[in-house]
């Protein structure tokens, strides 16, 4: 993988003027972290969001950053919420401009704790009472050794009674659940959503369509099954979808391997069918464009990515565009915009 400076130089080879620059955007999915050779804090986020698009607010999503180094294991993820709430306070000062970063925060709590997870959720809420909205508990698991399984994930996790007991604690508190896994697991989320109809669920990254390992070279076949699974999931009214996050290496488009980064036209052409099918199934009111930055920055710049979204949505009405670019995120995460 390229180092940060080299990556920025690579991305700088393709620059575009923003399309529809006045259209308000709420970016409902980005991260902040500081790992060796890879720092993405408020200043880097602002460099991206100030690329010409009208980004009015963002939502931070769990990524394992700044967990507490000690104390009870189950409470260590609260450190991430404490950290992000501080960043949000920086942004809310207005010193950095009108955009409100991390207006909503989705952290992590281990739903496998069952009912005991309630105490962890309350600790998150106490750490960011104005901004904490819910959690993401990644359940990405695949039987093939070539596919990365996230720590603690296992087959059928969303069907486990302890996991579902923990999810009920979210319902009691009116909190959201972000789901990330791999595309063969979409039916598991459908079953989970039907079992917990009062839980507000957000599916991240289209359900993780893969094109690596045993799935490489099978995108056309996988896409057809993915379409059927997404159509069935859409029958669950408590499920919303983040439409984005398709530019990771696991998705198989390989943008990061090219001499030049993709243009917005290239991105839109290659990925449009995923977006249009999802919007057709769920409706614009239940879909929200997401950047997934800085993860997707491996493939494209922030400005180019949002231009691609605008190209994909070019045929939609003004009301539908509002829903896709800000309205759904505002409603689901209760941002009060």
Secondary-structure element sequence? HEEEHEHEHEHEHEHEHEHH
Please describe the biggest sheet, giving its number of strands, its sense, and whether it closes into a barrel: 8 strands, parallel
* Arrangement of strands in the largest sheet: 1-4-5-6-7-8-9-10
Oligomer: single chain
Measured between the Cα atoms of the first and last residue, the distance is 38 Å
The gyration radius over C-alpha positions equals 19 Å
Share of residues in helices? 25-40%
Low-confidence stretches: none
Give the number of DSSP strands: 10
Strand percent estimate: 5-15%
Briefly note the structural class of the backbone. Answer: alpha/beta
Mean pLDDT: 96
The global form is: globular
The helix count comes to 10
Describe the structure.
The protein has 337 residues and is α/β, with parallel strands linked by helices. Helices cover 37% and strands 15% of the residues. The protein has ten helices and ten strands. The chain is globular.
């Amino acid at each position: 993988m390229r180092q940060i400076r080299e990556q920025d130089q690579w991305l700088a080879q393709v620059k575009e003027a923003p399309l529809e620059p006045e259209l308000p955007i709420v970016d409902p999915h980005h991260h902040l972290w500081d790992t060796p050779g890879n720092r993405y804090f408020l200043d880097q986020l602002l460099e991206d969001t100030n690329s010409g698009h009208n980004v009015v607010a963002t939502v931070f999503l769990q990524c394992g950053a700044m967990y507490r180094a000690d104390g009870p294991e189950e409470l260590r993820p609260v450190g991430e919420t404490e950290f992000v709430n501080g960043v949000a306070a920086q942004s809310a000062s207005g010193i950095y401009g009108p955009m409100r970063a991390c207006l909503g925060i989705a952290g992590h709590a281990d739903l496998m704790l069952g009912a005991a997870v309630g105490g962890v959720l309350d600790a998150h809420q106490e750490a960011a009472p104005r901004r904490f909205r819910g959690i993401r508990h990644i359940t990405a698991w695949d039987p093939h050794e070539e596919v990365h399984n996230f720590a603690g994930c296992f087959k059928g996790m969303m069907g486990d009674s302890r996991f579902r007991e923990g999810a009920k604690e979210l319902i009691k508190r009116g909190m959201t659940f972000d789901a990330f896994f791999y595309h063969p697991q979409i039916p598991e989320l459908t079953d989970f959503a039907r079992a917990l109809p009062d839980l507000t669920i957000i599916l991240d990254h289209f359900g993780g369509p893969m094109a690596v390992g045993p799935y490489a070279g099978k995108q056309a076949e996988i896409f057809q099954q993915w379409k059927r699974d997404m159509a069935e999931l859409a029958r669950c009214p408590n499920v919303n979808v983040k439409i984005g996050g398709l530019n990771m290496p696991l998705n198989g488009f390989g943008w990061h391997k090219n001499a030049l980064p993709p243009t917005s036209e290239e991105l839109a052409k290659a990925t449009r069918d995923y977006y249009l099918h999802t919007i057709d199934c769920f409706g614009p009111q239940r879909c929200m464009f997401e950047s997934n930055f800085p993860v997707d920055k491996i493939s494209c710049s922030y400005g180019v990515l949002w231009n691609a979204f605008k190209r994909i949505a070019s045929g939609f009405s003004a009301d539908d565009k509002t829903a896709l670019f800000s309205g759904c995120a505002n409603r689901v995460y209760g941002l009060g915009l």
